[in-house]
């Protein structure tokens, strides 16, 4: 593939555009959008990174935990009496906020429960038998398929076609994105604000929980040295469950925030790509490193949108993964380095 | 540590609550600023409704007179014995709706025919391909092997038609499709293949002319997905639009994408008069709703891949006023009633084509055709009106006159 510099634009056999003007024109708008997606990636990435830190396991089923969270918050809204409609429900600001919180709790409960259930049903028995790490990996991939196909084929039968199936759920809209203010010409909507602020708050709470509480100390201890931690009276099994729970709960919250932004995204296959991106974010920041996951998420979210503007919109995933490879070439343990950061100290 | 163990569960729950509450308080912060966050609800139920029929130049073409349409009942004196027509397409699986629309349309025609002609009972045999080329190649031999089958309505999709074309061509079995629109299908030298609607080239050209003509768009962003269908359609539309197609805001999306931020920002800063989306509703609907959420008000035009009630369900309010085209015609009222009586649901895209094409095959049987060769010869020379349009084919198996219907979400 020959690259020719042609009239200020690079063409690679006409396949890849190279257009810095598009990036310059939309820089701030892309930054705002990128931060909202990055914040969601970051929350999901925490689940990958914590489990890796404690178990040295890439939980590939985490993307499906996220997907179940989307259905969880949707089901919660239906239980609250909402129904799919083309129109947004006009409940006033205060009630809308209350309903969004309840929806988020619905997502958290389903995702958190599913994550712990997955741990108990799929991973704990393997651990008990001392299975090699590859078996865990295969199990994770298998669990991922099972959960997807459950929502694809079984859930619609259980719910009389209300949930799951081949099509995306018809959106329930509580909030219509409306511009609140502009930064350098980029519109910032209420949805952008809610996502970024809620995600950062959750990230902060998680960071404090891991670094400043007794349970967080337990997680860090098991991550650092499981044997010694056990000798010191830390129950490894409980810490593992707690880790899965935190990861699941954050994925559930992220799922609710994601559906604010992408209302038609609630579909059985809807977690897959996002999960891989979140996993990449975790590796980018340094897997096993909580703050690395947050940084990696935000960075990936912003960079892939910049990349789309420069190289063309179809190259989103390629940009994300090339970025990952480039960073790993120069910093093989990710930007902030592997391990639960200062936790090891 | 013992207490810690016992209380882990409880604290975990408390953590959940804390996380939730933090999320809540932050949301209320965002929400307070979102005083205009809730929109007024409009009560009208949105639906895809036929607007006008256009020709290749994008000018209005008068709709077919339904009074002159061929009647599957014939004169009621036909005699035949042991003949059947087959229908092949997706009857189960993710795309079952389209195959079912065609099958139910054909059923109306066959039932009408059999009720009127006591001495000529034609059987309608159904073959499910799930719309999957691989499955279709497994099903095709059993259709060919059934000696009673002298004509085939289908296959329904372009991919499966391409995969099975050689088998039907070798068997000399008429293959009359009500929905496969890939232009390349008539370039294989199959003498048994006829297309009962315009192909993607004719649809793309007509809609591009309609965009610049009737809709008066001077700057159009063409967005395409990564399927053969979307890519082919976008190419024709871009070419026909000429200078009106702005390459700086053309973009490509991928099957399965649900989030289109960068595309929306690029389109937004280009400030086009119209956006053309070549692809299916699964991506088109969320794309449109994100365009509207992003403040892009430009006219939205898409194709028959998006022309599905699911498009309106997914995009909701955002789909209002969107234009959706289709080489398929809307169902006349009388036909819609018969269809609903017969199948218990409203006719969908290609239902009318299914009825019209089955009617043509029934007319062949009534005229005395008893074998596959006779059926192909009959269709080759056929000229007559149906409910949707005038049917008459050129040497390649394309309709001599193609028209495109413009629908609008209202």
Automatic annotation (TrEMBL), chain A:
Membrane topology reported for the UniProt record: Multi-pass membrane protein
InterPro entries the UniProt entry points to: ABC_transp_permease (IPR001851), BCAA_transport_permease (IPR052157)
Cell location: Cell membrane
A Pfam family per the record: BPD_transp_2
Keywords tagged on the record: Amino-acid transport, Cell inner membrane, Cell membrane, Membrane, Transmembrane, Transmembrane helix, Transport
This protein's GO CC annotations: plasma membrane
Transmembrane segments: 35-58, 65-85, 97-118, 130-147, 193-210, 239-260, 266-287, 294-312, 318-337
GO molecular function: L-isoleucine transmembrane transporter activity; L-leucine transmembrane transporter activity; L-phenylalanine transmembrane transporter activity; L-valine transmembrane transporter activity
Presence of the UniProt keyword Metal-binding in the record: no
GO BP annotations, alphabetical order: D-alanine transmembrane transport; L-alanine transport; L-isoleucine import across plasma membrane
CDD domains in the record: TM_PBP1_LivH_like
Similarity annotation: Belongs to the binding-protein-dependent transport system permease family. LivHM subfamily.
Protein name (record): Amino acid/amide ABC transporter membrane protein 1 (HAAT family)
Protein species of origin: Sediminihabitans luteus
UniProtKB/TrEMBL annotation, chain B:
Key word Transport present: yes
Leucine-binding protein domain sequence ranges: 83-410
Any Pfam family the entry gives: Peripla_BP_6
A GO biological-process term: amino acid transport
Keywords noted in UniProt: Amino-acid transport, Signal, Transport
InterPro entries per the UniProt record, alphabetical: Leu-bd, Leu_Ile_Val-bd, Peripla_BP_I
Position of the signal peptide: none
Assigned protein family: Belongs to the leucine-binding protein family.
Name of the protein in question: Amino acid/amide ABC transporter substrate-binding protein (HAAT family)
Organism in which the protein naturally occurs: Sediminihabitans luteus
Taxonomic path: Bacteria, Bacillati, Actinomycetota, Actinomycetes, Micrococcales
